[in-house]
Amino acid sequence: MSGTHAGNPIAARVRRLEERLVAGGLVTDGELDAVLASVLRGATPLNGARIAARAWSDEGFRERLLADAGAALPEVGLSMAGGLQEQRLKVVANTPETHNVLVCTLCSCYPVALLGPSPSWYKSEAYRSRVVREPRSVLTEFGFELPETTAVTVWDSSAESRYMVLPRRPDGTEGLSEDELAGLVTREGLIGTAAV
Amino acid sequence: MAEREALPAQFAPGDQVRAVAVDPDWHTRLPTYARGRIGRVVSVTGSWPLADDVARRREEPRVEPVYTVAFAARDLWGEGGHEVTLDLWQSYLEPYAPNEEA
User: Fold this and answer.
1) Where residue B65 sits, what CATH number does that domain have?
2) Which of residues 33-92 of A touch B (CB under 8 A)?
3) Of A12, A73, A137, A186, which one has the greatest count of Cβ atoms within 10 A?
4) What fold characterizes domain A45-191?
């Protein structure tokens, strides 16, 4: 969570709502904390990094992952069942021809139960309104220059599916182990605002 | 909440569709920027209760196929070379045949 979270008006409103629910005897603070803890247990971008590293190392896994991510995740000890309800995950692979970038223009949908909370900029109005309209400019502001010859697809998570980008395996990494490969992957790479 | 049987899929990958040009006063997951725009069905992702019905606390929300639909930036914004894909419930879409345009 960012340091400014407590000053956020929505956070204050949520806290007031929590207080009313607790005061009304509908729920306790402990129960609310337990729900959050159970949803976020094990949720981290490291899961996405492990998935990417396996996909780079095992072509069969890559194919199964892109065809049906939910069915392939158990192969790396993960699943989409960790949240309040199981969600469909779609993994989209970057290629030399096409780069993928994720957004939720309506709110801030993100595979939270798998990858943990999204970055604060992902929820900002600026990112959400601009990346669907001028993705190349937005990527440039992230310090990521995409070749003109690479097409861009922006995935707006408008329904019940959640998305993850499979970055391209960096050049010169042929000798690396799966763990070493996972260490190269960033949360931005899994959203598509960085190359890896 | 009772769950209805899913409606059969009306569209297939490759079909051209138009997002309906509506402006409901309830919660919907059809973003304003896509309303009335023409796209191409990329895939059928499964069937889910219609978000509009769920948000309105309908007893039996309609369960509809949800499609990933790709729109060309040029058709959405009048410029840009990229594509934007959206996941849209079936009732957000209508068939589009270019030769029907007068």
Assistant:
1) 2.30.30.50
2) 88, 90
3) A73
4) Nitrile Hydratase; Chain A (3.90.330)
Provide the domain count of chain B. 1
Please report residues of A whose CB lies closer than 8 A to that of B45.
88, 90, 159, 161
**8 A C-beta contact, residue A61 and residue A72:** yes
pLDDT tens sequence across A52-79: 999 999 999 999 999 999 999 999 999 9
Taking the CA of residue B59 and the nearest CA in chain A, the distance in Å comes to 20
Give a yes or no: residue B69 inside a domain. yes
Chain A residues closer than 8 Å to B87 by CB: 156-161
Interchain CB contact of A100 with B (< 8 Å): no
The per-residue pLDDT for range A139-183, each reduced to its tens digit, is: 999 999 999 999 999 999 999 999 999 999 999 999 999 999 999
Q: Please give the ipTM for the structure prediction.
A: 0.93
CB of A133 less than 8 A from some CB of B: yes
| Secondary structure class of B88 (helix, strand, coil) | strand
